[in-house]
UniProtKB/TrEMBL annotation:
Gene3D superfamilies named among the record's database cross-references: Peptidoglycan recognition protein-like
Name of the protein in its database record: N-acetylmuramoyl-L-alanine amidase domain-containing protein
InterPro entries: Amidase/PGRP_sf
């Protein structure tokens, strides 16, 4: 018997993405450590679960997060 699992979504979140005097303006504020950690974890998940697309929340919803365009980021080049 062959089991097949299809995942619809894996969501990752980091504590970054807001700046400005009000602290509420969307801006890519990831530290180098956050960038490399997020890229490493995403690559592991892409490989393990044969993920076909990496998207930002802002591509599928009217949200500002993750405050950068995942398609133009190194995350978007994982697949
Ligand atoms: Zn979000």
């Amino acid at each position: 018997m062959k089991a097949e699992i299809q995942l619809a979504l894996i969501a990752l979140s980091i504590n970054a993405g807001l700046a400005g005097a009000d602290g509420k303006t969307a801006k890519d504020t990831r530290t180098p450590a956050q960038r490399s950690s997020l890229l490493w974890l995403s690559a592991q998940l892409v490989h393990k679960h044969m993920i076909k697309r990496v998207r930002g929340h802002n591509e599928v919803s009217s949200k500002a997060c993750p405050s950068f365009d995942a398609r133009k980021d190194e995350l978007g080049r994982l697949v």
